[in-house]
Amino acid sequence: MCPRAAPTCEICEKVVSKYKCPSCLVPYCSLGCFKKHKETPCAKPSAAEEKPASPAKEVSVVENKDVVAKTEHKASASSAAKEVPVARPITVEEEKYVVEKTQLEAIASSSEIREALKDEALQKLICSIDSSSNPLLELDEAMGVEAFRVLTEKILSNISKSSDKQ
Predict the structure, then answer these.
(1) Rounded to an integer, what distance in angstroms lies between the CA atom of residue 63 and that of residue 53?
(2) Per-residue pLDDT tens for 57-80?
(3) Which one of 37, 102, 119, 136 has the largest count of C-beta atoms within 10 Å of its C-beta?
(4) Which of 12, 29, 45 is the C-terminal boundary of a domain?
């Protein structure tokens, strides 16, 4: 799978966009650009404009609001000063790669995974992957880091255990 060219923010036209307006799907890079965009009304694009060129499924990161809310609540209790990133749509080429709600709950409730995520170096690595203009390359490089590789193994093991129970 080849990485796609990252779109540029249509507001400032300087930075790679990480988000899309929920109404009109215009790409933007920051809260400042989003606020500037919202100064003028926007509308959801017609069905013809909205459909992607490939048969990819768009999934919202916040589909499982229960899990996210519980996890954010627990995280905010321990680190109130940390900023929680805004959810953005993710394009998934194959639906089999979409994690089910029960699998997310299993990951969120795993003490082993939660303990591993306390590592600040690992947190920074995950943030750098998430904010990268080429996350697939960053992800490949991160697999060379022992702590990240171990974390992914724990997550995959946890996912397979929860799907076996279903």
Answers:
(1) 23
(2) 445 444 444 444 444 444 444 444
(3) 37
(4) 45
* Average pLDDT score, the chain: 74
Interhelix angle 120-131/135-142, nearest 10 degrees: 150
> Could you tell me the pLDDT band of residue 146, with boundaries at 50, 70 and 90?
very high
User: In the prediction, which pLDDT does 124 show?
Assistant: 93
Write down how long the chain is: 166
- Answer yes or no: is 75 within a domain: no
**Number of domains forming the structure of the chain:** 2
Question: SS3 for 152?
Answer: helix
Residue 138 corresponds to which tokens in the numbers above?
């960053």
Domain residue limits at 156: 97-164
Is residue 49 over pLDDT 50?
Answer: no
In terms of average pLDDT, the best of 33-42, 88-97, 155-164 is: 33-42
Read out DSSP for 92-146?
ESSGGGSPPHHHHHHHHH-HHHHHHTT-HHHHHHHHHHHH-SSHHHHHHHHTTSH
Q: Tell me, yes or no, whether 70 lies in a domain.
A: no
User: Do the domain assignments include residue 90?
Assistant: no
Residues contacting 110, CB < 8 A, separation 6+: 154, 158
Residue 14, in any domain of the structure: yes
